[in-house]
Amino acid sequence: MTAFDAAVLGGGIMGSATALNLAWGGMRVAVIEKRALGSGASGVNAGTLSLQIKRVALMPYAIRGKELWATTAKRLGVDVHYRVVGGMTLAFTEAEAEALRTRMAERIAAGAGAEMITAARAGEIEPALAGERIVLASYSPLDAYANSSVTGLAYRRALVAAGAEVREGAPVTAIDRAEGAFTITAGGERVVARRLVLAGGAWLKGLLRMVGIEMPIHYRVNQVAVTERTRPLFKAVIMHALGFLTLKQSDNGTVLIGGGWQGFGDPEAGGGEVDAENLVGNLRLARYAMPALAGSRIVRSWAGYEAHVPDFMPLIGPLAGVDDAYVIGCVRGGYTQGPYMGQLLAELILGREPEMPLFNPNRFNEARAAA
Amino acid sequence: MTAPGPERFDLIVIGAGPAGASAATEADRAGLRVLLLDEQPAAGGQIYRPLPAEFSPREGRAPGPDLRAGAALRAALAGSGAEARFRRRVWHLARGFSVFALGPDGVERYAAPALLVAAGTHERVIAFPGWTLPGVIGLAGATVLLKSQQVLPGERVVVAGAGPLLGAVAAGILKGGGRVVACVDLASPAEWMRLAPAAGLRPDLWGQAAGWTAAFLRGRVPLYPRHAVVEARGPGRVAEVCIAPVGGDGAPRADAPVRVLRADSLCVGHGLVPATEMTRALGAEHLYRPDEGGWIARRDACLRTSVERLYVAGDGAGIAGAVPAALRGRLAALAAARDLGRLAEAEFARKAAPVRRRLARTAAFGAAVARLMALRPGLARTVSRDTLVCRCEDLTRAEIEDAIGEGAREINQLKSWTRCGMGPCQGRMCGETVASLMAARVGSREAVGQWTARPPFRPVDFEALTGDFTYDHLPFPPTAPA
Q1: Rounded mean pLDDT of B30-54?
Q2: Which chain A residue has its CA at the smallest distance from B461's CA?
Q3: Residue A16 has pLDDT above 60, yes or no
Q4: CB spacing of A43 vs B416 below 8 angstroms
Q5: Which pLDDT value is given to residue A1?
Q6: Does B456 sit within 8 Å of A278, measured CB to CB?
Q7: Rounded CA gap, B215 and B173, in Å?
């Protein structure tokens, strides 16, 4: 069995982007995915590419990530329906307006490219909004979205073209290390690789345990719903001052509704499940912002897992105590930043200086800390 | 939306066809507090669908056997203490069990420790060129027109496909004064004859069979056994229907002569598929059983699924026909009563025994009919590459095949890549064609898998789902740090 230069465990956007950059950098790479590439959060998130809702500390990464999405069709060979449509964040109460002012001041200073606008201006830009309910808004003409459901297809095509080995339907059951190489058992087969990249998304905790590392990784279960095709109602991505809404209408007329309303479920037990009360809550907020949605029908809703550690900052870098093993995950706003985060980690693994600093993944390493 | 909390029952039954209505009646007899939900205005399901209240049967005509059986089912239900609520669309289920329905006054929430799903079937139509033309409707849809609305699908109708709906639709059209240009049947006379031994145990069916035969002879309906529709042609709507002889797997023979029939309507259906979205959503294990219609929830002899206190009955649990459906509904209700500790073991055995005996007598015929309606793999295989397969998203066979060729391993991956199944039909119209095409490439329907069930089970009206609310009372979720 010939050894790969690197095995990437997890075929979401983090793992796929890392693997693709490693392959482009000349490494022999295997991507091992329990289901299908992009079948987790990377493929079921709402596809929002807005700098207005990004954390200030991550803004430089989000800016670079969004730039990469803009060129994805060319780089990966699949149209991911990247559309620059502008984005608007709405406050419906005085308290929300205050929160929006404070947050946006920081984010604009960090480069979000947005400006504060009046309710009247918001209504001019998007006449379908309930203008009389808006107290204050922010707007960025740069905000965009892409169709997350083709994430897997895009990366799969690019990985195959780059000569990477893609193994889908192969859940990892064991990771053994001997003689300077990792042997990964997945889907009843073995893969040997000199380097290991753990990129399991919501399933990262279990992968880390296989190399003896315990980390306090938790997850949120974010819900999304979609309407059937309906007449053109609006163009911009519509968001909420406190982050409870994302609303966008695709070219095909469907309206995608998200905002981090929580479903339930356990990644180890299966897919996330929709909480009906929270679905209705999310839809009510959407209708409050955009009354014309009442005339459409909801076709589908779903939930995806988003992993995080207590400080909600990423884990990206080499794992302490396991030579040649790396981790990438827990990136809040991971869809936007994933392509860039993967590129940064690949730069490190390829022996280059990453363009921006990584995120020490060992700050929560409970097993090592206790030892 | 549910300020007062859910309304609680011992058992909730979804679907008021023969299985669900019989189950509710039986569970009530066993002392359970039962709720029966259905989206139609009355019990009876598709087979025993009553005339709308505003309609009166034509003078001088005795009601047919289905109307009589339906009336008996409805009378038994009305005489029981089961709570039946109609015009309720169940759109979501949660383990435990919570049932979310959309009723005349908006979202309703119910809860019960036991749940029986008797959701029936949807029709399988394997794509063929022209199947999306106006004037082409399903056989099941045609029975709704005929039974509920007493409307003819057209004036010159081709009836085509598989199974007993062929006879029912053709006879209904003749009865309504329409003309059946042809009855195009995938099955051979020999396949129908295989029903005879099983039908011998079901004298209740002889009258119906005799009635259809007489109607066909009177109406001089040309019969085309072992034939399939290979194309419907316009312009604008159906004007011509092309048929050709086929083999046992439904594929037209290579040298087959194509016959062109002039018609203004085509009623076509290739069998019925159990509706499993509810049991899938609840995580029950499913098995692919082509002779019972396709994917079905794994069930024991008392209709228990792999999920505790979740039961299935009726054709949604595997195609078996109306009489076995009712019996399986009763058996499932008895099992639920026993599992809830409301029926002692001995009492359960005493009550279940006669139901099981009748089920054993009637099951053979149901199974034989289900086999007639089983998917014929040659149908999809011979569809041309430019035929529209997913009509919601405008995808041709070629586009589906290209995605499979690029490596889509199972049906949900295909859905992500192509949008196939993402439209308002939620994969019901295209699913069987797509899965058939995919199975031919990846080896089996088991490998192809099933669509992941996601709420709502059917598209629901945004306004009804959101109802009346105030901004101040929106239950905002906890947030991640900004």
Answers
A1: 90
A2: A297
A3: yes
A4: yes
A5: 61
A6: no
A7: 10
CB neighbours of residue B120 within 10 Å: 25
**pLDDT tens sequence across A247-298:** 999 999 999 999 999 999 999 888 899 999 999 999 999 999 999 999 999 9
User: Which positions 463-482 of B are in contact with A (Cβ < 8 Å)?
Assistant: 463, 465-466, 469, 471, 474-482
Contact A39 B412 (CB under 8 A): yes
What is the chain A residue with the closest CA to B404? Answer: A153
pLDDT at position B213, please?
A: 75
Which residues does chain B have within 8 Å of residue A288's beta carbon, measured at their own beta carbons? Answer: 469, 471, 474
CA atoms lying within 13 Å on the CB side of residue B187: 24
pLDDT higher than threshold 50 for residue B2: no
Q: Chain B residue with minimal CA distance to A220?
A: B480
Does residue B450 have a pLDDT over 80?
yes
The pairing of beta strand B89-94 with beta strand A189-198? unpaired
| Per-position b or e across A85-114, b if 16+ CB within 10 A of its CB | bbbbbbbbeeebbebbeebbeebbebebbb
Q: How far apart are the first and last CA of chain A?
A: 35
Q: What length does chain A have?
A: 371
pLDDT at B70 over 80: yes
B367/A contact by beta carbon, under 8 A? no
The answer to whether the CB atoms of B482 and A149 lie below 8 A apart is no
**CB within 8 Å: B424 and A274:** no
Residue A11 reports pLDDT greater than 70:
yes
Cβ B416–A300 below 8 Å, yes or no? no
Rounded to the nearest integer, the mean pLDDT of chain A is 95
Quote the mean pLDDT of chain B: 92
What residue of A is the nearest CA neighbor of B107?
A: A280
Contact B343, B337 (CB under 8 A): yes
Order of all β-strands in the sheet with B106-111: B7-8, B106-111, B98-103, B89-94
Residue B4 confidence class, pLDDT cut points 50, 70, 90: low
Q: Name the more confident of A202 and B54.
A: A202
Q: What pLDDT score was predicted for residue B5?
A: 87
Q: What type of residue sits at position A43?
A: G
Rg of chain A over Cα atoms, rounded to whole angstroms, equals: 21
Residues of B in contact with A299 (CB under 8 A): 422-424, 426, 456, 459
Q: Judge: A284–B474 Cβ closer than 8 Å, yes or no.
A: yes
Task: Confirm if B369 and B315 have CB atoms less than 8 A apart.
Answer: no
| pLDDT of amino acid B57 | 60
Chain B CB contacts of A262 under 8 Å are 477-478
Q: Taking CB atoms and an 8 Å limit, are A244 and B406 in contact across chains?
A: no
Distances (CA, A) of B102 to A290, A320, B36, B89, B231: 22, 54, 14, 5, 39
Asked if B465 contacts A257 with a C-beta cutoff of 8 angstroms, the reply is: no
Please confirm whether the linkage preceding B235 is cis (ω < 30° from 0).
yes
Task: Mark which residues 438-467 of B lie under 8 Å from A by CB.
Answer: 452, 454-456, 459-463, 465-466
**B206-224 confidence digits (pLDDT tens):** 677 777 777 777 778 999 9
CA closest to B481 among chain A residues: A312
Which whole number is the average pLDDT over B107-122? 97
